[in-house]
From TrEMBL:
Domain of life: Eukaryota
Pfam families, sorted: Sulfotransfer_1 (PF00685)
Stored InterPro entries: Gal/GlcNAc/GalNAc_ST, P-loop_NTPase, Sulfotransferase_dom
Protein name per Swiss-Prot or TrEMBL: Carbohydrate sulfotransferase 1-like
Positions of transmembrane segments: 18-36
Record bears the keyword Transmembrane helix: yes
Keywords assigned: Membrane, Transmembrane, Transmembrane helix
Organism taxonomic ancestry: Eukaryota, Metazoa, Hemichordata, Enteropneusta, Harrimaniidae
Amino acid sequence: MTGSCKESLWKTSLPRSSVLYACVFINTVFIAVMILRHDVRDILTVGIKQQRVDYTRIPGNTEMHSTSKKVKSEKHIIILAGKRTGSSFLGEILNQNTKVMYMFEPLFHFTEKVLKGDMNPDIFDAESVELVDSIFKCDFNNSRFMTRLHPLFCSTSNALSKSALCGKHKVPTDDIVVENFTNVCRTYLYKALKTIRIYDIELLRSLAVDPALNLKIIHLVRDPRGIMNSRENLNSKNLDFERKDVEWDEVTDLCKDIKKNLNIVSTSASWLKGRYMRIRYEDVAKHPHSKAEDIYDFIGLEMPTEVKQWISENTNQTKGNQFSRSRNSSVVATKWRNEMPFSDILSIQKKCSISMALLGYKEVKSPTDLNEETNVLGPLPDYLS
């Protein structure tokens, strides 16, 4: 380049020193351009190579997706509910989807540890949120209780039940469970769990604002009269109420939590917009197909045929125990009207009047009001558009 530069410029009338300076400048620019072109080419080449080799296969789909696309497409769903609100049934609407990895009550062992004195109750909430975050990110190493979760997940999660560890009689070590479940978890874009052990929706703020999670919160509620009737029929202790160790009774505790969460949602929770859906058990029980469609629309997924079929087969059952996910759902929803002593109904209404009104549940004044379902169930108010 230097020789051709001099030959070209010497043919002009420019002084010799000017020719030399001009050639130096031209050569410098030429070298800079070549370096820049070389760097850009290398950067593009590296990026193309990374895109070509870094893939994740999606279950139930033969299409290959790049990791960058996977991060943007991932969805995480948490069903937030209370004991005896119908959360097990609602969870099955996600569990029956072959593209969703669903986990049933992963926090149950924390309750056991608190009651046994092996965990400080003051750290229950923080530990619970940390575990949920770890599960959603397939980081099972953060759980020190995998051998306890192993049989639970194997028996309740359609996705994890296919693991090589499930069905074996010998209990594997934590390390083996962690490795196995991690490998399964990483093949799913969509992960869901349900819990009755997180009482304060504010605890989910850190998860909701984490862009890596793309979190959707389904808040399941139920008439307090129906909840307490179902709990009474169990004839067993509410261990999570005992864990909380509060000064008031169980009914008051239930409705205090309902009121607190509805207040958060309706007044100051801008971080929930687009991430939160409230749904009543009674509406799911009466219209399971349409409400399931609403849930899938909210999540941003198409409801598959296998879920529709499962709903049809499991909402008209006449048999089933108290923990069954198969029910005659329209009958079960408000059967408390025929089972609960009227004095108990009036007591619950007195303690829960505000919470009931916020959720569209009507108070009754006399036993004859219980004859018609419309006397106890009104429309669900919309507090969060």
